[in-house]
Amino acid sequence: MKITILGIESSCDDTSAAIIRDGLMLSNVIAGQAVHREYGGVVPELASRAHQQNIIPVISEAIRRAGTGKSEIDAIAFTRGPGLLGSLLVGVSFAKGLAASLGIPLIEVNHLQAHVLAHFIRTAQETETPSFPFLCLLVSGGNSQIIRVEGYDEMEVIGRTIDDAAGEAFDKCAKVMGLDYPGGPIVNRLAVGGNPRAFSFAKPHVSGYDYSFSGLKTSFLYTLRDCLKADAHFITHHQEDLCASLQATVVDILMDKLKKASIDLGIKELALAGGVSANTALRDTFTDYARRYGWKIYIPPLAFTTDNAAMVAITGYFKYMKKEFCGMDVVPFSRVIL
User: Residue 16: enclosing H or E segment and its boundaries?
Assistant: First the structure.
């Protein structure tokens, strides 16, 4: 018997729907929201309104591309949280209504767990999946975590940011330089032409495997402040070097703790996940560390780094196999520790 799962993702500003059958992705549709660029960040009220406009056409297109019908869907998996409450409410409410109309079960999904399990999505091009246990570096605009993964439903966060996330540091430093939103991809693009050692920024001294990026942001801001006193066009003249140095510092911070965790725990299978895992320097450094320390690594396809419903659907598939369903009284949540 084939198991077909419809996944719905609406945690932030991307509306996404996907169909997965027996772990194989049949479709994965994403609708972004360009409206937030002029505000330099996601505006929650605008995001929820856009989700309301996008969710029906996105789900319809996902079903069409999958070549399936609504009657073939066995369950609906949806992102319950963490995320923006208004955005989550749109996805959760629609999932409830559709599940009730079709008479099929609901499956709640933790957004962060879904990012980790994106490595188990099967596509037409088969890729090797991690073996348990493995360590996953989950890096995004809102989260920076090192997760020990013992199974599909057994994960422990052993390190997390105590203040800002890596993606947030990229976006906020980019904003200070006058770059558009989202800043992370722009920093990544400009860094290619810069010298990663042109500037030195503060690195935190945090115990264990935890992260901190607030000091880096302050150091970056003070560097700009001091240099702009001598050269009013300093940012324009050194934009690429600033981006390269910022990026190199963030990557160094991330990888130092990941290396420590790998050595301490004796785990040499490691994976990347989350939006910042699309960063070129992080992917290159991750690969370099694998060569140096004998790691077996897993880097997600770019399509699975950002928020997408395929990762929700694959998580739902594993939960369906264990009959882990939820009721119609479930409500979304904005913050949680994995």
Answer: strand 15-21
**Rounded alpha-carbon distances, angstroms, from residue 69 to 28, 60, 72, 259, 326:** 15, 10, 5, 46, 23
Edge-first strand listing for the sheet containing 144-151: 154-160, 144-151, 134-139, 269-273, 296-298
Q: Which CATH number fits domain 134-300: 3.30.70.3040, 3.40.50.1260, 3.40.710.10, 3.30.420.40?
A: 3.30.420.40
Residue 244 in contact with residue 196, Cβ under 8 Å? yes
Alpha carbons within 13 angstroms on the beta-carbon side of residue 99 total 25
Judged by DSSP in three states, 20 sits in: strand
pLDDT digits (tens, 9 = 90+) for 131-160: 999 999 999 878 899 999 999 999 999 999
* Neighbour count for residue 71 (Cβ, 10 Å): 7
pTM (2 decimals)? 0.94
Q: Per-residue pLDDT tens for 202-240?
A: 998 899 999 999 999 999 999 999 999 999 999 999 999
CATH of 4-125+304-321, one of 3.40.50.1110, 3.40.190.10, 3.40.50.2300, 3.30.420.40: 3.30.420.40
The closest alpha carbon to 57, from 30, 89, 85, belongs to 30
